[in-house]
Specification:
The complex is a heterodimer of chains A (115) and B (113). With 115 residues, chain A is mainly beta. Helix content of chain A is 0%, strand content 54%. In chain B, strands 2, 4, 5, 9, 10 and 11 form a six-stranded mixed β-sheet that branches. Classes of the chains: A mainly beta (115), B mainly beta (113).
């Protein structure tokens, strides 16, 4: 089991550029979550999908943020245009089912720096 | 008031000490309570989860929930240097999505030999 795979591990970009973060959930997991972690605000849920369908995007901070899940094995989080305040570690996580007591499995995150 | 309050520490203890980590929460709808451990440059990993009030033990770790006072704790016995990490409490109301978690700020723990 390779776990949740995120790429890239680090991303440095200039303000105004488009950033795309990628996630491959654990095979067989049908719920996928994007979280953001900052020193000031801690870990916050941005959006989650169940069976590739976005269920709750109330945590997405602005229209500059968008997420897609075109199939069960791939999801992207896009920021366009990026701003310095978007600098954070972005985590993707997956779980086998939406309900129940299955734990959330996190990837190792993408550390985004916007200059 | 934040939904989950957690003392960020940092907390430094000698090897072998008993560690007590605590969180308070404000939303009575929370039903599931978890503790995650996060090593530097890694994603959080689930340590323990509980549903009801009371204690749950797993090896050197004990999770305690007091719903009447909205207080949860994690105790680590015989702490080891490998326990040095950030510990995050988390909650969910359950029912809808178990993965829709509200996290505390995390407590940074260092266990020195």
């Amino acid at each position: 089991d390779a776990g949740v795979i995120q790429s890239p591990r680090h991303e440095v970009t200039e303000m105004g550029q488009e950033v795309t973060l990628r996630c491959k959930p654990i095979s067989g997991h049908n719920s996928l979550f994007w979280y953001r972690q900052t020193m000031m605000r801690g870990l916050e849920l941005l959006i989650y999908f169940n069976n590739n369908v976005p269920i709750d995007d109330s945590g997405m901070p602005e229209d500059r943020f968008s997420a897609k899940m075109p199939n069960a094995s791939f999801s992207t989080l896009k920021i366009q245009p990026s701003e310095p305040r978007d600098s954070a570690v972005y985590f993707c996580a997956s779980t086998p089912e939406e309900k129940g007591n299955s734990p959330l499995h996190f990837g190792n995150g993408t550390r985004l720096t916007v200059t | 008031q934040k939904e989950v309050e957690q003392d960020p520490g940092p907390l430094s203890v000698p090897e072998g000490a008993i560690v007590s980590l605590n969180c308070t929460y404000s939303n009575s709808a929370f039903q599931y309570f978890m503790w995650y451990r996060q090593y530097s440059r890694k994603g959080p990993e689930l340590l323990m989860y509980t549903y009801s009030s009371g204690n749950k033990e797993d090896g050197r770790f004990t999770a305690q929930v007091d719903k009447s006072s909205k207080y949860i704790s994690l105790f680590i016995r015989d702490s080891q240097p490998s326990d040095s990490a950030t510990y995050l409490c988390a909650h969910t109301s359950g029912g809808t999505s178990y993965g829709k978690l509200t996290f505390g700020q995390g407590t940074i723990l260092t266990v020195h030999p």
